[in-house]
Every structure is written in C-alpha cells, then in structure tokens.
Write a structure and sequence with these properties.
By secondary structure, the protein is mainly alpha-helical. It has three domains: 1-46; 63-130, no CATH class; 139-406, no CATH class. 77% of the residues lie in helices and 5% in strands. It is built from 16 helices and three strands. The protein has helices at 25-34, 50-60, 66-81, 86-96, 100-114, 119-124, 132-144, 147-204, 210-245, 247-257, 264-284, 289-299, 303-317, 322-328, 334-346, 349-405; strands at 3-9, 15-21, 38-44. It has a three-stranded antiparallel sheet. A hairpin with a 5-residue loop joins strand 1 (3-9) and strand 2 (15-21). Helix 8 (147-204) runs parallel beside helix 16. The longest helix is centred in the middle third of the chain and has 58 residues, at 147-204. It is extended.
Length: 406
C-alpha cells in the first residue's frame, strides 16, 4: 500500500502534517476530513530504497514482538481514555509504530475502520499480528463499552509474557553457549589434534591403550566420512522436524516436554502461568467462560496442554461447574483445584486466577534460578570428564614412550 505525505489544518486552524498509508489520495483525504483535518496537499511519497525495505521485511518475518504489542496496547489505552477517536488513535500509532509489520497491519486496520467495520473485525483480518485472544477481548470491549479497560488488561498480559520469556531465555542462554562450545571443541580436536598424535604414535611403534585406540578410530572415521556424517545428521534433523510438525508428532513431543527430567516442571509451570494469566484477563473482561476457555486454549503453545484445556471447556458445556471441569484437566494439582473451588463459591474467579498467576510467577522465578544453579555444576563436571578422558587418551602413550626411553 502506498505512503502519502500530507499537510492540512485542524479545527483550530493549526497547520498539521504527517505520513499515512492509504489505497489512494482520495481515501486519505476522506480519512483526514473525518478526523477534522482539512487537507491542503497530499503527495505520494517515493520509495527511496525498495530492495532494502524488502530485505528488511524478509528478515523481520510476520511476527510482532510482545514488546511492540505491549507498547501498542498501552498507547491505545491512553489515547482512548483521553477521548481520542478510535480511527485517529490507530492512524497515529500506525505512523509511529517501531515494527514495520505492526505498522502495515495498523494502516490496513485504519482502512477497514474507514469502510465501516468495527475494530475487532478489522483486527481479525490479520491473525499473524493480532491473536484470537486479543481480537476476542477487543470485540467484548466494544460491545460492553469498556474498550480502554480491555487494552489495559492486554498491556499487563503482554508485559508479563515478555518478562517471563526473557527470563527463560536468559536462564538457558549460558548452557546452550557452553554445550555449543564443547561440540565445536570436540570437532576441532578430532579433525586437527588427534591425527597429529596418531602419526607420532604410528612412527614410534608403541602399544596404545584401548582408550587411545578408540579415540583415534573415531577421529579417522570422522576424517574419512565427514560428508556422510553431515548428510546423515542433516537428514535426521529434517525428518525429525517433519515428524514433530505432524499432529501426532507434535502431540507426542509436547507431552514429552512436560515430563523431561530437568526442565519438565519448569515448562509445565510456564504453561500454567500462561493459562492462569490469560484466563484471569478473560474473566475480568466479562467474556463467557466457554468462549473464554477457547481463547485461553488458543494462547497456549503446548498442544497437550491445549487439549486438556479444551477438555475442560467441553466438561463445562456438558453442565459441570469450573471445579469439576478442572478435575478433568490433568494439568492442575490439588492446590489449584482448591483455589478454583473457593473462587467459584465466592464469585471472585478473576481475582483468584490472578493469585494463581502470581503464585506460578514466583514458582517460575524459583525454578529458573534453581535450573541455573543446577546446570552450572553439571556442565562443569561434564567438561572436566571430557577433558580428563581426552588428556589420558592422548598423553598415556607419550608417558609410555618416555618410560621405554629410560
């Protein structure tokens, strides 16, 4: 969609200018008039470097970061609370959005608003940018007249989601870096170091320890068949990725994720944190429980957990209360079930879900710290054992050669 620059005068006669996407200059003129701006000049902006912009769009992808969505929802809340019309607010945020993907989506949403559609319906046309949870809450906010409160709830959701993801990435960044360094080190030793020592041992005609024989055999195998090994590894990764992307493979992998020895509990708590936080926002927004659980399930990335939430929704549709439906779901412990039962009796479901989300947030923080404290000594022991074995395999023959010399 082309970008136009414009100049005009507002209701007070003040000169205003800016940029906006529009299908044509006439559509932009009509949009400005609706915003009480009388256009003076509208000029098509030249695309200065189309190849560079296309390259940026390719590497940027279609997803929008939670940070950008959090900023968007907070600004929408502020503008709507101040009495700014929805169309003006969307146009303003589209012109100032940091994300190109979000900016293009907001410009298109503004076009939809001009044609008479509601904000929720307009956002629904761009599922890669606006999730079903976000669209559903916006629709409810429009119907109830509390759209600004909905954007405030969404701001809290995206901020917590962003902080949790950043903490999780920070916790696993160090072990991933160390493991990658170990793999690179082993490859370098096998390709460049072991063959040199193997030639020395071959000229010396000494009997090699079993450990050294195995190490040289592995090094020779990789040196002679490295291309085959890389191709096999590549095809295994492709086949595994293809299987994991199938419905059965994804369900099996996501079920196994929650049962992993070290990080399984952490992943389960992260899933329950998202469930509680999303369900709290849905409950506080006035969305019906059955419809809200559908939105909650769509916000959960783990397929196994999503199926459990949908089973909970089906139980409610059959006439069960929230506690009975939660007992069908295999994700909850007796503590959460007790809290949900109390919330249902008191009618404070949203507040209790916020408490559950806060509880899981503290548990996730503790698990992340414990994971970091646990992984560091494990990696240290693994590196020490690897270095010791390689050192013994490489230098034991040298020590034997020295003894024979004496």
């Amino acid at each position: 969609m082309p970008i136009f620059t414009y100049q005009g005068r507002d209701a007070s006669g003040k000169l205003v200018s800016g940029e906006s996407m529009a299908s044509s200059a006439d559509n932009l003129s009509a949009s400005l008039i609706k915003e009480n701006i009388v256009p003076i000049t509208i000029t098509l902006k030249k695309n200065e470097n189309p190849f560079w912009k296309k390259s940026i769009r390719f590497f940027e992808g279609k997803k929008v970061k939670n940070t950008d969505l959090s900023l968007f929802t907070r600004q929408m809340y502020t503008l709507l609370k101040s009495g700014v019309p929805i169309l003006s607010a969307v146009n303003h945020l589209a012109a100032n959005a940091r994300s190109e993907v979000l900016a293009r989506a907001l410009h298109s949403v503004a076009e939809e608003l001009q044609s008479g559609r509601s904000l929720g319906v307009a956002m629904q046309q761009y599922p890669d940018v606006f999730s079903q949870l976000m669209v559903g809450m916006v629709m409810v906010g429009e119907n109830t007249g509390h759209l600004n409160d909905v954007f405030l709830h969404l701001t809290s959701y995206f901020e917590l989601e962003d902080s949790t993801i950043k903490r999780a990435k920070s916790a696993i960044r160090y072990p991933i870096f160390v493991i990658a360094a170990i793999i690179v080190g082993v490859i370098i030793i096998n390709i460049f170091v072991i063959p040199v020592f193997a030639k020395v041992y071959a000229r010396a005609h000494v009997q090699l320890p079993t450990m050294t024989v195995w190490l040289i055999a592995i090094s020779n195998f990789f040196a002679a068949h490295w291309l085959i090994v890389l191709l096999l590894l590549f095809f295994c990764i492709i086949a595994l990725k293809y299987y994991v992307n199938t419905p059965n493979g994804k369900l099996l992998w996501h079920t196994y994720q929650l049962r992993l020895p070290v990080i399984g509990n952490l992943l389960k708590r992260l899933t329950l944190l998202r469930f509680a936080q999303t369900f709290a926002i849905v409950a506080n927004s006035g969305i019906p429980i059955v419809q809200g659980l559908t939105l909650v399930a769509q916000s959960i990335t783990n397929v196994y957990a999503r199926q459990e939430v949908m089973a909970m929704q089906e139980a409610i549709q059959r006439g069960n209360n929230i506690l009975q439906a939660a007992q069908v779901c295999k994700l909850f412990t007796p503590i959460e079930l007790q809290m949900l039962g109390v919330a249902e009796e008191t009618g404070e479901l949203g507040a209790m879900l916020n408490e559950i989300a806060y509880y899981y947030q503290r548990e996730v923080d503790y698990d992340l710290k414990k994971l970091t404290d646990l992984i560091e000594p494990i990696l240290l022991i693994a590196i020490s054992i690897m270095v010791l074995l390689m050192a013994l395999a490489v230098y034991l023959p040298i020590w034997n050669m020295v003894k024979l010399a004496h």
